[in-house]
Design a protein that fits this description.
Layout: H1 24-38, H2 48-74, E1 75-78, E2 82-88, E3 91-96, E4 99-102, E5 109-115, E6 120-129, E7 135-146, H3 149-154, H4 159-175, H5 180-185, H6 189-207, E8 211-222, H7 228-297, H8 299-316, H9 336-341
Antiparallel strand pairs: 1-4, 2-3, 2-5, 6-7, 7-8
Helix pairs in contact: 1-2, 4-6, 7-8
C-alpha cells in the first residue's frame, strides 16, 4: 500500500492523525481583527505582537501596490501622430511631444492624447436663399485636422458641431450675394466655394477652435425638388432666348453687309454719274467755245453747216421717206422706214415706174428680189 512506504511509517489517509482542519469562522474572525488593528480598531483576540506584524505586512503590500501604480500612471508613450495635453489639478499645464514622457500620477496630473495628423471629415447639406430670392440646395464636404490640441480640447465644447455650424453660416453668407443662375450653372460656383472656405477658416480662428480646414468642396448643387420642374422650364426658356438672339445675330451679320454693299454701290454709281455728267458738260462747253471761234471766222459757212447737221439729225430719227415725185424716170423705192424702225412683217414694197401724172405706183411685194435698190438715175 502507498501509505506503508519505507521510512514513512504506517499512515492511514482516512484518519486525521490528530490534526483538525481550520475553522472558517476562525479565519474570518482573524481577518476582521487585523483590519480593525490597521484602521485603529479595538484589539482582537490575538496578542498585540501578532496584530502589529499583520498590520505591517498589509501596509507594505499597499505601499508596493501604490508605488507600482504610480510608476505605471506616470509614464506616458505619445505616438508620432499625437500630442499629449497635461492637466494639473484640472488646469492646463503643458503639451507633451511624441515619445516617452513622465508626469505625476493621477489625481495630480492627467494626460489627454489628441491625434493632430489624421484628417477628419464631415458632410452636410442645406437650403440657402440666393440674392434673387431663390432657394438652392447645396451638399458640401469639409475636411479638417487639429491645429492646436489645447484649443481643440478646451476652447469649444464640440469642435465638429462648431465646424458644421460655422460652415453653414459661411456658405449662407456667400450664397446670399450671388444669383441662382450663376451658382447653379457653374459660372460663380467656384467663387462661392472659395469665399465660403475663407469665411469658415476666419470664423474658426476667431473662435480659437484649434481647427485647420484643408478642403471645402461642393458635392451637389441643385434647386429643391418641389420647384425643380418650374426651374427646368425657366432654363429651357432661357436657352430659347439665347438661341433666338443667336439667330438674330446671324441674320443681322448676313443682312447688314449686303445693305452696306448695296449702299456703297449706289454711292459709287452716283459718283460715276456725277463725274460723267460734269465731264460731258465740260466737253459741251469746250465744243461750244470752239464752235464760237469758227463762227466768228466764217459765219455763213458755219451757220449752213450747223443747219445741215441739225436737219441730218432730225431726218435721221424720222420714219418717213420723201421722194421727188415731179422728176421723170424710173424710181426704185427702198423701204428705209421699215428697215430703220423694224415695223411691219419686213416685206419690201417695190414701186413701179412713175406715172405720167407724177404719181407713184406700187407693185406687189416680192421677197425674192435683191435687197439692194438703186436710187433715182
Amino acid at each position: 500500500m502507498p501509505w506503508k512506504e519505507p521510512g514513512k511509517g504506517e499512515k492511514d489517509p482516512w484518519s486525521s492523525g490528530g490534526q483538525q482542519p481550520p475553522d472558517l469562522e476562525e479565519v474570518f474572525r482573524n481577518v476582521n481583527d487585523r483590519l480593525k488593528s490597521i484602521f485603529g480598531g479595538g484589539g482582537g483576540r490575538r496578542s498585540d505582537s501578532d496584530g502589529g506584524r499583520g498590520g505591517g505586512s498589509i501596509l507594505s503590500v499597499v505601499a508596493v501596490a501604490l508605488l507600482l501604480w504610480g510608476g505605471y500612471d506616470a509614464v506616458h508613450i505619445i505616438d508620432e501622430a499625437e500630442q499629449g495635453v497635461v492637466l494639473r489639478f484640472g488646469a492646463y499645464s503643458r503639451t507633451l511631444d511624441p515619445g516617452i514622457n513622465l508626469t505625476l500620477p493621477r489625481p495630480f496630473e492627467t494626460v489627454f492624447k489628441v491625434n493632430v495628423s489624421s484628417v477628419r471629415s464631415l458632410e452636410d447639406r442645406g437650403h440657402m436663399l440666393t440674392e434673387d430670392e431663390n432657394l438652392v440646395e447645396i451638399n458640401y464636404k469639409i475636411q479638417f485636422r487639429v491645429a492646436s490640441s489645447q484649443d481643440f480640447l478646451f476652447k469649444v465644447r464640440s469642435p465638429e458641431s462648431t465646424v458644421r455650424d460655422a460652415a453653414e453660416s459661411a456658405l449662407r453668407e456667400s450664397v446670399g450675394t450671388n444669383r441662382l443662375d450663376a451658382i447653379h450653372e457653374g459660372t460663380q460656383r467656384e467663387t462661392v466655394r472659395l469665399e465660403a472656405f475663407r469665411v469658415l477658416q476666419e470664423t474658426l480662428d476667431r473662435y480659437q477652435a484649434g481647427v485647420l480646414v484643408t478642403q471645402f468642396n461642393f458635392t451637389d448643387v441643385n434647386v429643391p425638388a418641389q420647384v425643380r420642374e418650374a426651374y427646368s422650364d425657366v432654363i429651357r426658356a432661357r436657352e430659347d432666348r439665347e438661341r433666338f438672339i443667336e439667330e438674330a445675330r446671324v441674320h443681322a451679320n448676313s443682312v447688314v453687309p449686303e445693305a452696306r454693299g448695296a449702299a456703297a454701290r449706289v454711292v459709287q454709281e452716283a459718283e460715276g454719274y456725277k463725274e460723267a455728267t460734269v465731264a460731258l458738260a465740260r466737253g459741251e462747253a469746250q465744243r461750244f467755245s470752239l464752235l464760237l471761234e469758227e463762227y466768228r471766222k466764217a459765219p455763213e459757212i458755219t451757220r449752213k453747216r450747223l443747219y445741215l447737221q441739225t436737219m441730218e439729225s432730225v431726218f435721221g430719227r424720222s420714219r418717213k421717206v420723201l421722194l421727188d415725185a415731179d422728176s421723170s424716170g424710173n424710181i426704185l423705192y427702198l423701204p428705209l422706214d421699215q428697215l430703220i424702225g423694224g415695223a411691219g412683217s419686213g416685206r419690201v414694197m417695190i414701186p413701179s415706174t412713175g406715172s405720167p401724172d407724177g404719181g407713184v405706183g406700187v407693185d406687189s411685194p416680192s421677197p425674192s428680189r435683191d435687197a439692194r435698190r438703186e436710187g433715182r438715175q
